[in-house]
Each structure stands twice: as structure tokens, then as C-alpha cells.
Amino acid sequence: MRNYAVYYFCIILAAIFAELSQIFAKDKNNAFKLNKFFYITSFLFLFVLIGLRKCGVGVDDYVYQDIFYDINNGGMIDTFFNIFLEPGYLLLNRIVGFFTDDFQVLLAIASFIPLFCYYKMFEYYRREIDFFTAIIVFGFVFVLYFFGIVRLFISTGICAYAFRYFFEKKQKKFNAFIILAAMFHYSALILIILNLLINKEHNKKNLTKFYLIIALGIPLVFIVISKFIFPYVSFKYAGYVLNNNFKISLLNFDKVPFIILYYIFYGYLIKSNKNIKMHIVIFSLSIIISVYSSLVDFGRLEWYFAIEQCILLPMLVKSFSRSRNAFINFILVPLVLVYCFLYSNRMFHAGDREHLYNNYQNVIFNIKKWFSINNET
């Protein structure tokens, strides 16, 4: 357990300082401006944890390190045609490589960008969500997952920021950010399906039709891409092929209890946000993706829709705190903490990741040396 203490320490402190930024916010002229000192401090705890990690802690760090040197030694064009890497990420590598040949700098920047975007998303909902819960969910579920998954972290971060334009029905801006996100990970284009929901009345009939289209359409899209596109693009995507042993486990439905929870307490949530139904619909799409990820290994796509978990749970906690039933949070918040600890524990012990998480190192401090000193004393 002590090997994971640094993760728990940074995430919990980030959550506490985020909560303080909300508690000590200034509400002048109905602006409700967060306390910048506490908010930036919260951000820095997570940035130090993931952005200043030593290369090798993340599952794909060494792969990205090789790509970094290939781009800056062999050129962007050659690298693009060799592995069909996203042009936005290629450009980021080239810009960083122009100033330094230190891959750690790229890791820091590639972590700063998505963290900044996610924190801007939280700031957008500053009146409607509980910040402690938001950072706890984000830290234990998202940040820990994205160790080493650099491009996807950037892409989902941009999409997290872009969701505001979806709910504001600013379709052009939303699409522009989705295209930008796709420049770092092509999978972001999956969010184009949300255009089916923009500027429509979301009554029961339309939602049923939407779910039917998605439920039937996604597996067909997966099959076409895996059989006719990825095998001919590059070796990098050749592994995403059709799995003939289609199996569904209970883990594919781990988000269903939350959907039920949100609909049970829908009356509380709708008072906080008029678009709550669409938040729940988008989150529910992550379940559909998760189920079909057994058919084709596209499970990472669900993270674009799972972003809503960072909003819905904190929104529910905030809704209770404003109601006469605030005592419910004495049950709900501990349950959220238990869920996050169990989720992180499963992450820590995931096959190819366990030894990486277990040997955390940082460019600022040496966690192994720190523990060895304490053991000696």
C-alpha cells in the first residue's frame, strides 16, 4: 500500500484544495469567482503527480519517447507515413523538439494541456458541482488511467472543455474542438454522433430512436473499421481487429448503478442543471461502448462519454447539500470514496501496469529513497 501513497496523497490534497477554492470563492456581481490560490494549488498537486513523473512510470512512456526522437531526428512527414500518427501530436513533438531534446519536457506539456482543460470544465460548472467529489472522481478514475496514455489524455481533455459548446448549442465551435481533439487522437471523432442530439427536442421518442441507432450502428462501424481500415493503415492499429469470441462480463455494466442513481434523484439534479437529461444520456453511451469493446478492442472510446461522471456525481452531491436532505451526503460521499479506491486498486493491479505504478518516480523527488529512509529510522 505504501508504494501507492504518493497517488493517494496528491489526489486527496488536490481535492481538498479544490474544495477550498469553492468555499472561499468571491461572489461579486453574481460572478462567483473561485479562489485562484487554492484552485491553482489543487491543479499543481495533480500536475506534479502525472506531469513530472519520470519517463517509464506511464505504460506507453518509452514508446512515446522513441516517437519523440524519431520525429525530431527523422522528420514529421516520415513518422506520419510510417505509423499514421495524429498530426497535432506530431506538431507538438516537433515544437518541443525545436527547443529541447529532453523528452521529460514533452511529458510535462502533454500532461499540462489536458489537466488545464479538465480544470476549465470544472470551473465552468463551479456553481453546480461539489469540487471535492469532482477531483476525487477525476483523480482516481481518470488521472490514474491516463498515466502513459498521452495522446488520449490530451484528446479527452480538449473534448471535456468542448462539451460546454454542445450544451450551449454552439455546434460550429463544438465541432471545431472535436476536430482539434482528433488531431491528437483520431478516436475523438466518435463524438460526432452527438450532433444527432443538437438542436432537437429530447423527448422519450427521440431518445429511444437515438439509442436504437447507436446500439445498432456502433458495432457495424467497429467491424468496418477493424476489418477494412486499420489493417491497411499501419502496424500501430493492426491489433484492433474483430474478436470472434464476443463475451460480456459484469464489468461492462459497472456504470449502470450510477445511471439508476441519477434517474432516481433526477428531481434534485434538474434543479441544478436544465440539461441534466442529456448529461445522463451521454454518460450512458459509455456503457454501450464498453459492451461492444468485447467485440473489438475499442474500449478507450468510452472515456469520451465517461467524462460526464466527473460532472454528474459531483452535481448530485451539490444538489443534496443545497436541499433539506443534505444528510444523504454522509452516505453518498463515503460511497464515492470507496468506489474510487476500489477502482484505483483495480487499476494498480492491472497486468502490464502493476510494476509501473509500483515503481513511481518523479523528477523532483525519489519516492523509493524517501520510503527507504523512513524504514531505516
Number of strands: 0
Average pLDDT value? 84
The largest β sheet comes out as:
none
CA-based shape:
globular
Helix content: 55-70%
N/C terminus separation:
19 Å
Number of domains: 1
Report the β-strand fraction as a percent range.
Answer: under 5%
The helix tally amounts to 19
The secondary structure category is: mainly alpha
H and E order: HHHHHHHHHHHHHHHHHHH
Indicate the low-confidence ranges by residue numbers: 370-377
Radius of gyration in whole Å, from Cα?
21 Å
Could you characterize the architecture of this molecule?
This protein is mostly helical and 377 residues long. It has one domain. It is built from 19 helices and no strands.
Structure keywords:
mainly alpha, 377 residues
What's the topology here?
Elements: H1 5-23, H2 36-51, H3 61-74, H4 76-83, H5 87-99, H6 103-124, H7 131-143, H8 150-167, H9 171-182, H10 204-228, H11 230-233, H12 256-264, H13 266-272, H14 276-292, H15 302-306, H16 309-321, H17 329-348, H18 354-357, H19 367-376
Helix pairs in contact: 1-2, 1-7, 2-6, 3-4, 3-5, 6-8, 7-16, 7-17, 8-9, 10-14, 12-14, 13-16, 16-17
